[in-house]
Amino acid sequence: MTPRPGRADGCPAAAGQVPGPQAGDAPYARLDTEEFTATPHAVFEALRAEAAAVPVVVRGGIHAWLITRYDEARAVLADDRMAKDVRHWRDFHAGLVPFTGDVAVAARRNILSSDPPDHTRLREVLLSAFSPRRIELLRAQIARIAGDLLDRIAPRGRADLVAEFALPIPMTVICELFGVPADDRPGIRTWTEALFHGAAMERMAQASNEIDALLARVVEIRRADPGDDFTSALIVACDAGRISSEELASLLRAMLAGGNETTANLIGNAISALLQHPEALKLAVGEPRRWPQVIDEVLRWDAPIQNSLWRFATEDVEIGGRLIRRGDAVIVALSCANRDERAFAHAAAFDIARADRGHVSFGRGRHYCVGATLARLEAQIALPALFERLPDLRPAPGAALRYRQSTMSRGLISLPVQFAATPGRPAATCAS
Ligand code: HEM
């Protein structure tokens, strides 16, 4: 059997000193290591071979069950016995959980951390404000944003495509969606990065307060001067008594949290995957109708969110022969399930023509990602624009791929590239 990565036999929970998952028959695997950041797919492969539910330690020394296989992952994502509300989390109440970024998201009331009936109500309001029509209206703006960024990059012959392309696209799109005035956009970007890119605790708290203040200002501005934007639509729902003003703020926050790094990771991971697979890139560029397939294969092969957010068992549940006790924390390893050979033939291969589809990168069930259509749209516009504009794009010599250290997110820190410099179009204006 493949050796278990990063055994943590000495951790307090394994010794039975804390009430986290009672592993009993299995030592914990560590996902808070350099090894996991550098080679998550290898770590996942070993864990998936071992069991469908594996006890793990994640960042902050938190203990949880990791669901590794495809069928079980789909089942857990749609299981009503798996709640999102932290009041079901035994370790949290026992004071055994440090306040890391994703715990902060889970602990603060929002759509991602709520269960019915609140979740149902919040989701209905969100979806009515974030309608297919409003998403479709963003199409032209996404093309303009990507074009403006390429105008800045093209004359230089080299660029970091994470900082200069993948990150600014979703950030600018969200600002346009929310109706954030141009002057406030740099602030939103700075603080969002501090919040989601592992800043120190103090800076994270400061970032969180600053984001709240910025979003409150956006609400104020849109209330005084309503427009055809998402924030104005939420204000209408708030004034009609469907959501409180705290819930309005929490929906904006959730969309900001959900809509930035995720999509930047998708664009970055896609560029990286295509540079590693030039034959797939050639097919996509030659036949643009293939882009949606390419993007879905990137989502499966290198999922931008590799592990779901927390769930908590509301009763004892058996998964793959392991007993998950009431109050235990559960994480679904989306990226691991996506490479389960039981569901995908040659699962480790990047194959844009594969017939077996149905990755779980956007989750499943009642918390299925509300931004999936927008994320796909952004990638479907940005990627062809990039590769058509810079046809000889290649990795900068000696540039190693380094990923952000995170249990949840899978995204590159930077992506240095080279290409033949071409003139930018005149009058480039990008508000990001
Ligand atoms: C490639 C890009 C994206 C990926 C991989 C992704 C992934 C996910 C996943 C896995 C979930 C479910 C989490 C769970 O059940 O624990 C989720 C939920 C969510 N996503 Fe996304 N997301 C992406 C883009 C977006 C965008 C662009 C937005 C907003 C503009 C967004 C907003 C949300 C929100 C608000 C939820 C919570 C839904 C609920 O709890 O009902 N996401 N996303």
Structure description:
The protein has 432 residues and is of the alpha+beta class. The protein has a single domain, classed as Cytochrome P450 (Cytochrome p450, Orthogonal Bundle), CATH 1.10.630. 47% of the residues lie in helices and 9% in strands. The chain has 18 helices and eleven strands. The strands form three sheets. It has a six-stranded mixed sheet with strand order 1-2-3-9-6-4. Helix 9 runs antiparallel to helix 13, helix 14 crosses helix 16 and helix 16 packs across helix 18. The radius of gyration is 22 Å and the shape is globular. The structure holds protoporphyrin IX containing FE.
Helix share of residues? 40-55%
**Total domain count:** 1
CATH homologous group name = Cytochrome P450
Ligand identities:
protoporphyrin IX containing FE
Give the CATH level 1 class: Mainly Alpha
Q: Strand-and-helix sequence, N→C?
A: EHHEEHEHHHHEHHHHHHHHHEEEEHHEE
Query: Structural class, judged by helices and strands?
Result: alpha+beta
Q: Return Rg in Å.
A: 22 Å
Strand content: 5-15%
Order of strands, widest sheet:
1-2-3-9-6-4
Number of helices: 18
What best-fitting shape do the alpha-carbon axes yield?
A: globular
Sheet of most strands: 6 strands, mixed
CATH topology term: Cytochrome p450
Low-pLDDT parts are 1-19, 428-432
- Total strands: 11
Average pLDDT, to the nearest integer?
Answer: 89
CATH architecture grouping = Orthogonal Bundle
